Every structure is written in structure tokens, then in C-alpha cells.
Amino acid sequence: MSVLLGSLRGIERVGNKLPHPFWIFAFLAGFVILLSAVLSRAGVHAISPMDGERIEVQSLLSPEGFQVIFGEAVTNYVNFPPLGLVVVMMLGVVVAEQTGLINALLRGSIVRVPAKYMTFVVALVGIVGSVASDAAYVILIPLAAVVFQAVGRSPTLGIVVAFASVSAGWNATFIVAPTDALLGGISTQAAQIVDPEATVTPLANYFFNVASAVLLAVLITLVTELVLRRRTEGLDDVTTGGEALGDFNLKPEERKGLVAAGVTLLVMAVLFVAALVPENSWFRGEDGTVMESPLITGIAVVLATAFLAVGVAYGIMVGTVRSASDIPNYMGKGIKDLAPALVMFFAAAQFLAYFEWSGMAEVLAVRGAEWLGDQNVPVAFLFIGFVLLAALMNMFITSGSAQWALIAPVFVPMLMLLNVNPETTQAMYRIADASTNIVTPMSPYFVLVLGFMQRYRKDAGIGTLVSLTLPFTVTIMIVWTLFFLGWYALGIPLGPGAPVN
Asked: How far apart are CA 106 and CA 103, in angstroms?
């Protein structure tokens, strides 16, 4: 354990020296400009396995390159696939959050749960509640501590369970979330390096996500009950911290609001199905298929509308929506919260545009695929190697979107040339990202959780938290990877219209 803690402290020191993701992308963009000139002059090229054409690296230090750098900077940003998807979805999600709906759902799901089901329910609520992003951590972690203490269990254990479930749930939940739109947008741009018609929708991993959500809840429960429960007995000074459980109980108007939100969601679901069932429906695709329906291809708008509708229904009942102007005001709050991501997106969009235009992404993908093909690496080892590499990177770069924007332009096209769909590569990335989110001290939520723990155990430090979260990381990475390999072997689709191989 001392060696492990020393390694994690080393990771923390190195990670703390890394600049903001904006500057990482800005530096990489500058590096791509210089490298493209060197490789172009050296005549670096590849032969496309798709059509046999010669692919050459183009220099960005050229008249055409300057047009990409300066003349198309705004276009590069506006056309960055995740930008529109994330903004649109957040317009709806933030209304559900600001009206108090998500807060009430998290509290109402846990407070009256019997003690013997507490761990599983907290884990499942955390996984589903991760759609609320930061709010899930802020609401669920102290709530889990209180309800665990109320049933005679360690509040520290409740904190760790909530932290692990929300962190893992960012990449696997029942609800299509802004994260799905964000990853899908980046995957689409990376896949189009090889196939200009490729599209990875927010639903691309939905079937796998739903199954994984149940798996993760079970794994978190088993690790908690079989490994961590005994370790946390007598760990806390329960006379400090803690809050009255009654503070978390739902008020009558909140219960009415949840009923109104549920009815609204049910009506919308019925209308959605009814719009797609008739064979001559206007909402079907041009060829009459459901998957080409504008309701599916535009799922981000549909989901944003759903979040908006249930949030407004709840808000009207509890009084958080008193006039029509409240709704755009809440939406504005959501865009304000997105500001840091929008700033990072600008630098990331330029980096990806330069990388793609120069041809380096395609040359690297082709050369890498040729090398891997010559090595005859079994597909299972290839997948495991990718998961381990992405997991290691995530220890330092904890922003899932930033890391995926860095590695997707290389690995998505490379694996596509080895007959691995972009949706499959994206699913593997989810495993790596979720597993190490729980243990890396570079995560901003790691410090947040440590602060909550110190309310119940004053001497809790990084070592305490790592010792309690590491079993989750190891178990989830191993079992979830094996689960994915089994899924792949059986050829089960990852999502609607997304075959696994």
C-alpha cells in the first residue's frame, strides 16, 4: 500500500504541474503546425487501404495552411461536433436542475430505502444521477453519508459509495446524457477521417450503457459489502458532522411535483412512440426506417425537450417556475456554467482541425493499423491494451472530453482500419475513463469527497480515500472489460444502429 500511495502522490505532483486543458490543446495545435511542415518536407505518406490512393502530409506552414489556421478559425470552432449537441442538451438539463427536480429525485430515491438495500440503491441512484453532473456529487455524497449513519452504518462508507457510483456513472447510465452527445460528437469527427459519412450518435452505446449501469451497481455493492464494510467499522467519529435525516425528506409539494414530472414524461414517451409506429409517418426516415427518423438523428433536441418539459412541470407544482421568463433565465444559467467547456472547445477544435487537414491523422492511422495487422495481435489483447493506455492517461487528464479529443483522432480511425467500429472504440474508452475517475487524486471531486470525509473522521487524508476507492477501480476495470469482451464476442449491438463489430 505504501508503494501505491507513493505512486499516487507522484501522479498528483505531476498532474498538478500540467497546464489547463485549454493550453494543452493550444500547445498541441502549435506542435501539429510545426510537425506537419517537417513531415511534409520529408515526404511522409501512406497508401489508403480504402481506395489505394497516396495520402501525403500537408504542411500548415503554407498559403493553404494559413487559410485553415486564420481564415477558418471560426468555422473550425462552430463546426466542432460536440459544441452544438452539448449546448442544446444542457438547455433542457439545466431547467430540470434549476427547478429542483433532480435534487428531489435524488433525495426521494434514497431516504426511505430499507437498510439491507441501501448500498445497491445508492449505487444505482448515483449512476443514474450522474446526468446531473456536479449537482450529483454535491447532493448525493452528503445525503449518502446521512442515510448510512441513520441505519447504523459508517457515513464514510456512504460517501465512498456515492462518489464511486457517480464517477462511474458518467460513462454508463440509463439516461442519455450530455456526456453521450459530447463523446459521440468527438467520435464522429475522428471517424470521418476514414469515412466522411460516418456518424456516431448520442445513442451509439445506449444498450451497452444500460447493461453496464446494472453491472456497475452490482459491482459497487459487492465490493462495499464484501471488502469495505468491515474496513470502515469504527472508522468514524460519528459525533461530528451529520445532519438530521428529516432535512432530506420530500415536502408534499415536491411529491406532487414529481408526480407531475412523471406524468409529463409518460405522455412524451407515448407521443414519441406514436410518431414512429405508423409506416407512413412523417417522422420516419426517407426510406421509411425508424433509425433515419429525425427524432432519432436529432435525439439531442428530443432529450433536451424532455428534460425541459419535466423540469417545467415540476417547477410549476413547487413554485420554482412562476412565469415564462423563468425558463430562459434558467437556460442562461446553464450556458454560464458551460463557459469553461466552451473556452476549452475553441482550442480543441483548432487542434483537431489542424490534425485532420494536415493528413497526419490519416497517415498515422494507416501506418498504425498496418503495424498492428503485421503483428497479428489478438483483438482481445488489442482492446485490453487500449483500455489500459486510456486509463493511465486519465490519471493525469481527468476531463473525459479533453482526453477523448486527444486520443480519438488517432485510435478511432486506426481501429476502424482494423474493422473495429468507432462506437466500439468509444465504449472501450468509457471503461477506462470511468474506472480511474474513482481513484485519481487529480479529479476536482477527489478533494470534495475528502472534505466530506473529514467531517466524520478528522484525520482522513488522501491515503484514507485511496485505500477505500482503489478496490472499486480494480474490480470495475477488470470485470467491466471482461463484460465488454463477452459482449463483443456475442456480437450484441452497442446501441440502436450501432453493431459492435
From this structure: 5
Q: Which residue, chain included where needed, has cell 456516431?
A: 200
- Quick one: CA dihedral 435, 123, 186, 74, positive or negative? negative
Between β-strands 54-56 and 45-47, what pairing exists: parallel, antiparallel or unpaired? antiparallel
- How many helices (H) and strands (E) the chain has is answered by 22, 2
How many C-beta atoms surround the C-beta of residue 370 within 10 A? Answer: 16
Mean pLDDT of 350-360: 85
**Rounded distance, CA 163 to CA 466, Å?**
12
CA atoms within 13 A on the CB side of 238: 19
Distance between CA atoms of residues 45 and 53, nearest Å? 10
Model confidence at 314, pLDDT cuts 50, 70, 90, reads very high
Judge whether residue 63 has pLDDT over 50.
yes
Sign of the C-alpha dihedral computed for residues 100, 105, 108 and 110 taken in this order: negative
Q: What is the Cα–Cα distance from 87 to 100, expressed in whole angstroms? A: 20
Please give the grid coordinates belonging to residue 226: 464484501
Say if CB 386 and CB 418 are below 8 A apart.
Answer: no
| Residue 260, CB-side half-sphere exposure with 13 Å CA sphere | 20
Q: What is the mean pLDDT of residues 226-232?
A: 80
> Distance between CA atoms of 77 and 341, rounded to whole angstroms?
13
Phi, psi at residue 118, to the nearest 5°?
Answer: -60, -45
Beta bridge mates, 498: 495
Instruction: Kindly report, residue by residue over 83-93, the tens digit of the pLDDT.
Output: 887 788 778 88
Question: pTM for the whole thing?
Answer: 0.75
Q: Give the rounded distance of the alpha carbon of 224 from its chain centre.
A: 23
